[in-house]
Amino acid sequence: MSKYLSVCTLGLMLAACAPVAEGPQGPGEPPAAYMALGTEPGWTLEITPSRLNYDGDYGETKIMVPNPGARAVANGEHYVTDRLKVEVARGECSDGMSDRRYRDTVTVTADGKTVKGCGGGILPPTELAGTNWTFVSIGGVPVAADRPTTLAFEADRLSGSAGCNRFSGGYAVADRTLTADPLMATKMACPGAGMTQESAFFALMRGPVSLTFPTDGTLILTGSGGQTAVLKRVI
Predict the structure, then answer these.
(1) Is the separation of the CB atoms in 133 and 231 below 8 Å?
(2) Which of 2, 35, 40, 91 has the fewest Cβ atoms surrounding its Cβ within 10 A?
(3) pLDDT, tens digit (0-9, with 9 covering 90-100), for 73-123
(4) Exposure of 167 by Cβ count < 10 A (0-12 exposed, 13-18 middle, 19+ buried)?
(5) How many CB atoms are closer than 10 A to CB 178?
(6) What are the tens digits of pLDDT across the range 124-142?
(7) Do 109 and 148 fall into the same domain?
(8) Which ranges of the chain have pLDDT less than 70?
(9) Domain closes at, from 122, 144, 172
(10) Cα–Cα distance between 147 and 194 in angstroms, integer?
(11) Number of folded domains in the chain?
């Protein structure tokens, strides 16, 4: 694989990657494994209860060793083996390829070569303005795969599609609560799931909506009646 293709692959990975776990993990659920990643050169590290799994140099270096257990240090923890040393320090970190921010700064020394990157839970964006999302589920129902969805936030307006019509409207955020003006939408009729999920989203947005940012990088909108919409960030 050429380095160009490797860089592109890494870029796609960073755009979609959150600190995820082995096995199934739903939006908003805590990860069962710790993930870290970095760029220049691209690398990833997975820490599970049983092993440390490191892929470095855009996938050319692969090291898998038993997990020796975390050694607590000031403001973090270390993992030390013959081939890998991992230093996790609590402190906000940017991955260098997107505006996604992580909880920890991570330093990995693999066979004597040291790289730095980010790991742990994804932190909420500093503000909604300038962020873009797609829907994962609306009202607890996964969105239809054949109905593209978007939700974009500008300085004081939001716009997008919940699977059928384009919509837009003003909004304001205070204390993790979003209040939207009545949404203006096109008048196209869509068969099947597209119209159903759109109607559920419009109903959700008629009142104040609480904002929750789980550490997996998703956004959960919760209406006053308990109805929810789960979205994932587009980087």
Answers:
(1) yes
(2) 2
(3) 999 999 999 999 999 999 999 977 777 899 999 999 999 999 999 999 999
(4) buried
(5) 17
(6) 998 999 999 999 999 999 9
(7) no
(8) 1-31
(9) 122
(10) 6
(11) 2
Average pLDDT, the chain: 87
Which residues neighbour 57 within 8 Å (Cβ) at sequence distance 6 or greater? 41, 42, 43
118, amino acid identity? C
Instruction: Write down the residue that tokens 């990860």 correspond to.
Output: 31
Instruction: Supply the pLDDT for residue 192.
Output: 82
Residue that the structure tokens 């330093």 belong to: 107
Q: Which two tokens stand for residue 172?
A: 């304001």
CA distance 101 to 104: 9
pTM for this prediction: 0.77
Judge contact between 102 and 93, C-beta under 8 A: yes
Strands 166-174 and 157-161: antiparallel
Question: What is the predicted pLDDT for the residue at 160?
Answer: 98
Smallest CA-to-CA distance from 111 within 156, 37, 165, 57 is with 57
pLDDT at residue 170, rounded to an integer: 98
The tokens for 24 are: 């199934």
Sequence-separated contacts (24+) of 61-65 with Cβ below 8 Å = 61/110, 61/111, 63/110, 63/111
Tell me: do 105 and 142 sit in the same domain: no
What are the C-alpha distances in Å from 202 to residues 25, 51, 124, 168, 199?
27, 46, 24, 11, 5
End position of a domain, from candidates 59, 87, 122? 122
Cβ neighbours around 82 below 10 Å, total: 8
